[in-house]
Amino acid sequence: MENLTDQLINYQQTVQQLLIGYAQNKPAYGDIEVETIFDTQRNHYQIMHLGWQHKRWIHQCVMHLDIRNEKIWIFYNSTEHDIAANLVRLGVPKQDIVLGFHPRVLTLNPLPYKTSCKKCVACFCCKAAVPAALQQRKVA
Questions:
Q1: Distance CA 33, CA 105 (A)
Q2: What DSSP element (H or E) covers 60?
């Protein structure tokens, strides 16, 4: 690994640490293995579930994060874990976390997160950085 910045190295270690912690939680159902997949050359990080649940084969991506342009992109999370909040707790600035599963117009100019919400503009409780003008629901 050549010419890696300190920030990139820190983010690689942080993402790996976080996913290794999440991977310790084995599903309570079926004979399921939990695998971490770390591509540190291309900065792709995933947790996979695979195995058998009754007579059904399970092969599923549970979490997918990338590091792009020195920001951590969360592309997929099918768990109850709040990845963004946990990244912030581990020292990642909120502006360096991008929710990649939102429309591109929102991810190009992500709003800063708040830790609680009154009008639900951009917060962890909604798990989204969505401008109020684009929201479909009314929040009291």
A1: 37
A2: strand 56-68
H/E element, 35: strand 31-39
Distance in angstroms (rounded) separating the CA atoms of residues 35 and 89: 24
- For residue 114, the 8-state DSSP code is B
The whole-number mean pLDDT for each consecutive block of 10 residues of the chain, a chain of 140 residues, reads: 80 97 89 95 97 92 96 95 95 93 56 45 44 39
Give the span between the Cα atoms of 47 and 122, in whole angstroms.
26
* Residue carrying structure tokens 């997160």: 113
Q: Are 127 and 115 a contacting pair, CB within 8 Å? A: no
> Cα–Cα distance between 123 and 129 in angstroms, integer?
7
Helix (H, G, I), strand (E, B) or coil at 105: helix
